[in-house]
């Protein structure tokens, strides 16, 4: 057997002869960091990896290790949303995170109320007998800097699995993932675009005192009636600059920002996209906006109804569905007319959203927003470009045909609000539910409320809907209903100012 010819040897820095296009040329090898010679082709191939410049997301732990080192990150927050959408998790040195440390949280952490209390077991609501661990599994596509921290810090959103590696069905991110998978099994891909409203308010350390609008750069307290006012936005220029700066550092893209009608009420619109990615963005935006506001000595609140007499804050959800193979909007026929699936999606929303309302209006306060005459829908009607309906179809080209769900409030967990809304549309599409006729009249000022009127009524409707068992999961239904009943019982222990004002001396 003939021996394979060996390449010519050369010492580092010593010219070697190479042949190109029939001519002999002299080349000096490049010197690597170690001082050893590196062939010119190897040097050319050693281009800077694109992921190092990514503001948000890498492929795996190997890339994460380089990404963190590039930014000299010292600490990593491993976070996950609980049932309320609050970030829970652990912070650790970056070296520990990249050491593939196993991370876990107790299961009971996802079964307590917004006030941190653990409800009594009732009905199907049961705690794990041993309060076993749930394992945090980082989603590397979500890694980003935490720009408001003084030390270089990164955050990464995690999923939760049990000790056997199975997804925990009652945790919010997994609930939404399951709904998206149902669409994919049908050859569809849901597309969403959330709009999040919130209030800026003066610092309030005593909950017995009402919230008040903050002082703007004019030195005066902000008043209502500022809808779409550029001047209203300019009152908080420096704060808004920080919101944009923090968002850019995290790879969060804001589509538009406007001033809403309430006093110091703002709205941020996000670009449309994958439901899980958009839920992650809303989750991170809430943290970002709160931190930016605190930097300016005010609060940002996502309460549905924080100030009496002012409009409530919504999280409107624009939804469409495309064919996974072609990318075509299934809400439109080839000739541009509304498709049957479009009408069935709306039919599902009308039929099922009232029963799923507790996932979109999760607190006692949420139902203070859903009152007639306050610019919020109190119905399950639909119409073309009709903002008084629960389900509005904006004017658009056929390729952008979509349905806006105007019922969710901004206090909702974004993962659960999106899961509920998409699940209702999915049921309509798979069951062939026909909607009623669209309306062009005002339907939110007649005093009629065709939705659950309060938290307990909403929980009862939620538990009674058998169709939710498969699309949302039995374990989630039982857990969520048990937590909401517990929160209502906690609320009932609080005596309100209204009771002291009107009952103290009159009854």
From TrEMBL:
Residues 1-24 are annotated as: Disordered. Residues 172-507 form the GS catalytic domain. It holds the Pfam family Gln-synt_C. Keywords: Ligase, Magnesium. Gene3D superfamilies: Glutamine synthetase, N-terminal domain, Glutamine synthetase/guanido kinase, catalytic domain. Its cofactor is Mg(2+). Transmembrane segments: none annotated. InterPro entries: Gln_synt_N_sf, Gln_synth/guanido_kin_cat_dom, Gln_synth_cat_dom, Gln_synth_gly_rich_site. Belongs to the glutamine synthetase family. This is L-glutamine synthetase.
């Amino acid at each position: 057997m003939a021996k394979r010819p060996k390449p010519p040897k050369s010492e580092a820095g010593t010219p070697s002869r190479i042949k190109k296009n029939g001519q002999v040329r002299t080349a000096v090898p490049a010197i690597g960091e170690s001082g050893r010679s590196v062939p010119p082709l190897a040097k050319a191939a050693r281009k800077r990896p694109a992921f190092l410049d990514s503001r948000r997301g890498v492929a795996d732990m190997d890339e994460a290790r380089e990404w963190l080192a590039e930014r000299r990150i010292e600490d990593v927050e491993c976070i996950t949303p609980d049932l309320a959408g609050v970030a829970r998790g652990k912070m650790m040195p970056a070296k520990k995170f990249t050491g593939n440390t196993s991370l876990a949280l107790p299961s009971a952490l996802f079964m307590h109320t917004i006030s941190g209390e653990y409800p009594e077991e009732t009905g199907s609501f049961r705690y794990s007998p041993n309060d076993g661990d749930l394992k945090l599994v980082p989603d590397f596509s979500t890694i980003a800097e935490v720009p408001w921290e003084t030390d270089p810090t990164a955050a990464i959103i995690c999923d939760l699995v049990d000790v056997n590696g199975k997804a925990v069905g009652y945790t919010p991110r997994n609930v939404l993932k399951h709904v998206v998978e149902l669409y994919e099994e049908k050859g569809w891909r849901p597309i969403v675009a959330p709009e999040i409203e919130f209030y800026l308010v003066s610092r309030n350390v005593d909950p017995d005192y009402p919230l008040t609008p903050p002082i703007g750069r004019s030195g005066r307290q902000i008043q209502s009636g500022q809808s779409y006012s550029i001047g209203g936005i300019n009152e908080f220029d420096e704060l808004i600059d920080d919101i944009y700066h923090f968002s850019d550092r995290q790879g969060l893209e804001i589509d538009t920002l406007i001033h809403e009608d309430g006093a110091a009420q703002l709205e941020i619109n996000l670009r449309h996209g994958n439901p899980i990615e958009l839920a992650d963005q809303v989750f991170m935006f809430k943290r970002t906006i709160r931190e930016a506001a605190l930097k300016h000595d005010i609060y940002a609140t996502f309460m549905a109804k924080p100030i009496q007499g002012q409009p409530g804050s919504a999280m409107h959800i624009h939804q469409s569905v495309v064919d996974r193979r072609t990318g075509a909007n299934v809400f439109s026929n080839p000739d541009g007319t509304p498709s049957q699936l479009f009408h069935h999606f709306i039919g599902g929303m009308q039929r099922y959203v009232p029963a799923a309302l507790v996932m979109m209006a999760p607190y006692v306060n949420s139902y203070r927003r859903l009152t007639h005459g306050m610019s919020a829908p109190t119905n399950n009607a639909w119409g073309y470009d009709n903002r008084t309906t629960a389900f509005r179809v904006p004017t658009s080209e056929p390729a952008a045909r979509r349905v806006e769900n105007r019922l969710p409030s901004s206090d909702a967990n974004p993962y659960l609000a999106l899961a509920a809304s998409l699940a209702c549309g999915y049921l309509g599409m798979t069951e062939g539910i026909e909607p009623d006729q669209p309306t062009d009249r005002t339907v939110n000022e007649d005093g009629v409320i065709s939705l659950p009127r309060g938290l307990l009524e909403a929980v009862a409707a939620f538990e009674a809907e058998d169709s939710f068992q498969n699309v949302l999961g039995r374990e989630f239904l039982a857990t969520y209903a048990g937590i909401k009943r517990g929160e209502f019982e906690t609320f009932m222990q609080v005596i309100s100012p209204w009771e002291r004002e009107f009952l103290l001396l009159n009854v």
